[in-house]
């Protein structure tokens, strides 16, 4: 009835070698949830010393449960309490995590000027719909200090994150109308530069009315107040109105969409005098910006039969975009950065995210995609290549944008993507972007994968981003010394059973700029019907040492035992080991 097996004086052995003993264990034999202690975990890392976890699962109610985990770390000098609570109600589903370490010995030694050595994390994720029209969402992460994710492993952030997001929203939506009120804040982890704008609050409104004769219409409005975490930075209230009218035409082999819209924005800015004097800017208290936009986007699809029941398509695309120039040097940049571009990005309306920088445009984007399908309509191959040709320079009037100082015209941005499923178990994927405004290859990536099944795979990949591209698209990272030469990493991920019940997982990434390894992981698992034993080693970058101008590394040795229910069928667990890696595997097939 309880669907549980009790085990007294449990012993686990590898051959004749005992590796684990427990005076009492419970093993599930069904699907019934039950409160009780879960299997403890242990590992050793250079930053935390010996670590020991003893999770307790609390089945509070059919729609509520919690997992309470004391996490002992010998070098930290205490126990971190990790508390996860899940709920399912009529108002929605959610998860709340609160981790708390009362006192951190290492943090206290490293930050002697900080009298508070308490470390904590709070995470809340919620998604809910009430009465089919009201929507409530939360994606909220906050930590005690900028070094938290460097010091502790967490599902809710990593050492490579530059910030944590705290977003709450409530909205109403019906067939043609939706409105959302939200607040968004950022906790920046860069101690040298903590400037970050928060939207407190933001209102977004959309109204759609299609089939107005041959036209579709859309009205978009936004009102937002920006506040910076640095009191010396400007504040602003922005009100934006954007009506759009479309004329879509299509048939079986092509489509053309003609669109016209008006971009009307008002800024009310404050706290400007000291900022203008210190930075040489000329931001104004009140600024209005009105600019029309016109776009024509045409696509065609041609097909031809090939041998062995394969079908090839040829899909040319051309888009003309016109936006007149408006000087935006009187406006601060509150939520605008250069957008990352791949092939699909060639056909965007905007060069920048947000609304503060809308570049002028008199340009034609052209591209072509070719696909190959097999007899079962499975896509086996595609390749896309395209460019943007600028008749006039794209400008915003902001002198801080380096390439606007040059009169750049012609074919400035090239991008290409490809995918090739060579066979059912072989795949290749890659992409490249060249930007003449940056005068280099901006980004590039490539992946080759062999995957026989979920336990047998080998993946090789390469990723590249130029330092100029990082500075333009990710300004919060541009000052970090570890990115001064850009990103150039080659890596391999592999998973393979070696003998019956045994599997090995490994990952290795090498930084070609520094000529040093970036991340390494090796895991070995023994799996049976009733339990699994994992042993792992991981070496990963965990911050930057300013004194030596080199990356800091953390070495972790892990040991894990998993008891399995007698009523379930388990595989070798290689996918779980891959997902636990700091550079998680993502299939290219």
What descriptors fit this protein?
589 residues, 6% helix, mainly beta, 26-stranded antiparallel β-barrel, globular, 59% strand
Question: Explain this structure to me?
Answer:
Helix content is 6%, strand content 59%. The strands form two sheets. The chain has a 26-stranded antiparallel barrel. The protein has a two-stranded antiparallel ribbon with strand order 1-2. The radius of gyration is 28 Å and the shape is globular. The chain is mainly beta and 589 residues long. The protein has six helices and 31 strands. Residues 566-573 and 581-585 have low confidence and may be disordered. It has a domain at 1-31. A hairpin with a 5-residue loop joins strand 21 (361-373) and strand 22.
Brief description of this entry?
By secondary structure, this protein is mainly beta. The protein has a domain at 1-31.
Beta-strand percentage? over 45%
Which secondary-structure class do the elements indicate? mainly beta
How many individual β-strands?
31
- List segments where confidence is low: pLDDT < 50 over at least 5 consecutive residues: 566-573, 581-585
Q: Roughly how many Å apart are the termini? A: 44 Å
Question: If you average the pLDDT, what whole number results?
Answer: 86
Number of helices: 6
Overall radius of gyration: 28 Å
**Shape type:** globular
Q: Helix fraction?
A: under 10%
Strand count, sense and barrel status of the largest sheet are: 26 strands, antiparallel, barrel
């Amino acid at each position: 009835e309880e669907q549980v097996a009790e085990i007294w004086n449990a012993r686990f052995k590898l051959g004749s070698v005992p590796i684990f003993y427990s005076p009492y264990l419970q093993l599930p034999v069904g699907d019934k949830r039950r409160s009780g202690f879960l299997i403890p975990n242990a590992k050793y890392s250079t930053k935390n010393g010996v670590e020991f976890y003893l999770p307790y699962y609390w089945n509070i109610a059919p729609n509520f449960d919690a997992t309470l985990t004391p996490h002992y770390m010998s070098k930290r000098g205490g126990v971190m309490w990790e508390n996860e609570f899940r709920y399912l109600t009529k108002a929605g589903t959610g998860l709340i995590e609160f981790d708390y370490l009362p006192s951190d010995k290492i943090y206290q030694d490293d930050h002697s000027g900080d009298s508070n050595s308490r470390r904590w994390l709070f995470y809340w994720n919620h998604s809910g719909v009430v009465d089919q029209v009201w929507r409530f969402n939360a994606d909220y992460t906050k930590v005690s200090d900028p070094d938290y994710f460097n010091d502790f492993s967490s599902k809710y952030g990593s050492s490579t994150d530059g910030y944590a997001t705290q977003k709450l929203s409530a909205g109403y939506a019906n067939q043609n109308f939706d409105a959302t009120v939200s607040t968004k804040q950022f906790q920046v982890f860069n101690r040298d530069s903590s400037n970050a704008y928060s939207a407190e609050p933001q209102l977004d409104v959309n109204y759609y009315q299609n089939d107005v004769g041959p036209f579709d219409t859309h009205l978009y409005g936004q009102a937002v107040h920006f506040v910076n975490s640095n009191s010396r930075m400007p504040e602003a209230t922005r009100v934006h109105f954007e009506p759009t009218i479309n004329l879509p035409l299509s048939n079986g082999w092509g489509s053309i969409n003609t669109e016209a819209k008006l971009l009307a924005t008002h800024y009310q800015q404050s706290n400007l005098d000291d900022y203008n004097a210190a930075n040489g800017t000329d931001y104004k208290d009140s600024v209005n910006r009105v600019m029309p936009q016109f776009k024509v986007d045409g696509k065609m699809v041609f097909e031809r039969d090939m041998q062995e029941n394969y079908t090839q398509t040829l899909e040319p695309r051309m888009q003309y975009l016109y936006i007149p120039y408006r000087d935006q040097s009187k406006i601060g940049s509150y939520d605008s950065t250069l957008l990352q571009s791949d092939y699909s990005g060639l056909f965007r309306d905007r060069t920048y995210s947000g609304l503060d920088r809308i570049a002028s445009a008199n340009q034609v984007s052209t591209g072509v995609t070719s696909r190959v399908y097999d007899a079962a309509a499975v896509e086996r191959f595609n390749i896309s290549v395209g460019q943007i040709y600028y008749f006039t320079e794209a400008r915003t009037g902001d002198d801080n944008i380096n390439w606007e100082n040059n009169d750049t015209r012609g074919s400035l941005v090239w991008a290409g993507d490809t995918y090739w499923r060579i066979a059912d178990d072989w795949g290749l994927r890659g992409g490249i972007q060249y930007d003449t405004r940056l005068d280099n290859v901006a980004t590039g990536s490539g992946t080759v994968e062999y995957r026989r099944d979920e336990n047998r795979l080998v993946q090789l990949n390469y990723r590249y981003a130029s330092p100029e591209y990082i500075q333009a698209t990710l300004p919060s990272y541009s000052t970090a010394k570890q990115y001064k030469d850009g990103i150039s990493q080659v890596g391999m991920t592999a998973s393979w059973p070696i003998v019956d019940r045994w599997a090995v997982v490994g990952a290795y990434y090498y930084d070609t700029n520094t000529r040093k390894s970036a991340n390494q992981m090796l895991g070995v698992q023994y799996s049976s019907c009733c339990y699994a034993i994992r042993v792992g080693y991981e070496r990963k970058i965990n911050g930057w040492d300013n004194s030596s101008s080199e990356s800091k590394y953390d070495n972790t040795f892990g040991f894990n035992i998993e008891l399995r229910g007698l009523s379930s069928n388990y595989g070798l667990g290689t996918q779980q080991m891959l997902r636990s890696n700091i550079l998680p595997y993502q299939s290219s097939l």
